[in-house]
């Protein structure tokens, strides 16, 4: 009798747990949250939880989960990198720099993300913190890892312009504009080769063309922007080409 009673009790218990787990699996985000709460010391579950919160723009919760991930697996650069990205999105550039610079020294990130993304994001934080020479160095390292990196080329153009203009030499400015236009042109070619039309690159090309007083190139850039964004207004064109704009889009 005791054996039969035990079986009778256990079967409903296991069935209930299985049913609840099926409900968890019905939505990956729910599964990541449930597992993250249940396993706070697991690097994997905390990383998944952090990314889930990051996608939901729950920044504080995301950082907390990713810090737990970093504590559980201090050799992985992934949580450091993602925290750095979050701090960039929040405008906390000094904090972002600390996490991202640490991420560049870690092992294993390349298993899940291209290393150039980490060095690129570190450059973004460095530039925002006024460390323009180091930012240029890290952008060049990112492009050494992957020369066909449109985002890196676009941002190298803006950084080049910023560095040379800050030095105040007229000759250097003209050279900087030429080099920046070359980098943006490369970014455009690489994007279009992947069937991607990025209006930001054409906005920067328009800005650089005006800076160089190249009206033919400026007209071409305006025409391309009107093609990509049919409802763009002249005022929008004016605003969009008022500066060289960095691109920061966290990699998936």
TrEMBL record:
TPR repeats lie at residues 43-76, 116-149. InterPro entries: O-mannosyl-transferase_TMTC, TPR-like_helical_dom_sf, TPR_rpt. It comes from the Eukaryota. The keyword Transport does not apply. Keywords: Repeat, Signal, TPR repeat. Transmembrane segments: none annotated. Residues 1-15 form the signal peptide. Gene3D superfamilies: Tetratricopeptide repeat domain. This is Uncharacterized protein.
